[in-house]
Specification:
two-stranded antiparallel sheet, alpha/beta, about 40% helix, 10 helices, 10 strands, binds NADP nicotinamide-adenine-dinucleotide phosphate, TIM Barrel
């Protein structure tokens, strides 16, 4: 699979990252393993999970995704070929929402144990915590790197100015720095004044910050749960506007011209803008369609029309 440099880290990762959020909960063990196999058979090696996945699904407590990943890696004996990302910071079960040193260390140990691995390749702060000093959080992440439990650290759901603040704290102390930022992002921009809080949407400010610093944006919820193409699902109100109707029309036009699907255009548009989309799927057909975003190219003219649609 095509690769992409992971922001400030000196490492290449798959251009499409596989989201494992519902593996082991909403997606059965057999379905999840099949989806993981399809992704890795296509050459993908970058898999995204978190300690909390997926506590909010009825009958589950969190940790199921990591446990399933561990089982699958043991069965396939493929740990060394993968780049595994996990996260800490949101609350679940008896764990509070926090990035305090104690919980970062405890949760990292739990994640390693669930997955049965010695090192997490990329460990994210899952959500900004304004109640814990950045120094405490960043020192805790640095200790994990020095102990070999984590290779790189990343941020998720942070504003650009907080990333810059974190960068200065890390550099001052020579601690491991956030290398990349994972944010809610899709082809349609948010209506002004709206937000998917507590998730943070990648706005122009953040995109500019990424371009200027070399930090890579990883986009989650890129396909808005399939709402771009599935008549039974609707886009959230915060993405509905007259300008966005024009963007939707442009997506359909370009998809038709290129002979691909609307979902593939969205993912491809991101890849060609140096963004790594997270793909998720609950069927082999969805997974194959999403991976198909790697098999074509949008022309410069198509990129320009997609970028400019709805902005006049
Ligand atoms: N950092 C964070 O705060 C954060 C937040 C959310 C997610 N994430 C990460 O990002 C990953 C993706 O997030 P997401 O689930 O919100 O992504 P998404 O792309 O918005 O939604 C994925 C869902 O869309 C549907 N779908 C996917 N491909 C499709 C296709 N080709 N055609 C029709 N429907 C399709 C499926 O829904 P059905 O299963 O219902 O069929 C699939 O489960 C997660 O697994 C997780 O790793 C991170």
């Amino acid at each position: 699979m095509q690769t992409h440099k992971l922001g400030l880290a000196d490492v290449q990762v798959s251009a499409l990252c596989l989201g494992a959020m519902y593996f082991g909960s909403r997606n059965s063990q057999a379905d999840s393993e099949r989806l993981l196999d399809i992704y890795t058979d296509a050459g993908g090696s970058f898999i995204d999970t978190a300690n909390i996945y997926a506590w909010w699904v009825d009958g589950f407590r969190g940790g199921e995704s990591e446990t399933l990943m561990g089982e699958w890696m043991r069965q396939r004996n493929n740990r060394s070929q993968l780049f595994i990302a996990s996260k800490v910071g949101f609350g679940y079960a008896d764990v509070p929402i926090t990035l305090s040193a104690r919980w970062i260390e405890e949760e990292c140990n739990k994640s390693l144990k669930r997955m049965g691995i010695e090192t997490i390749d990329l460990y994210y702060a899952h959500v900004d915590d304004r109640n814990t000093p950045l120094d405490e959080t960043l020192e805790a992440f640095d200790k994990l790197v020095k102990a070999g439990k984590v290779r790189y650290v990343g941020a998720s759901n942070y504003l650009a100015w907080r990333l810059e603040q974190a960068k200065w704290v890390s550099q001052t102390h020579q601690w491991a720095q956030f290398t990349c930022i994972q944010q809610h992002y899709t082809y349609l921009p948010l209506r002004p004044g709206t937000s998917p809080a507590p998730q943070v949407f990648a706005n122009e400010d953040l995109l500019d910050y990424c371009r200027s610093t070399g930090m890579t944006l990883l986009a989650y919820s890129a396909l808005q749960s399939g709402a771009y193409t599935r008549p039974e699902r609707s886009l959230p109100d915060r993405l509905v506007s007259a300008d966005n109707d024009k963007r939707l029309a442009m997506l359909r036009t370009v998809a038709q011209e290129a002979g691909v699907t609307v979902n593939q255009v969205i993912l491809r548009w991101m890849i060609q803008r140096d963004i790594i989309p997270l793909i998720a799927a609950s069927t082999p057909e969805q997974m194959t369609e999403n991976i198909g975003a790697l098999n074509f190219q949008l022309s410069a003219g198509q990129m320009q029309r997609l970028n400019e649609a709805g902005t006049d």
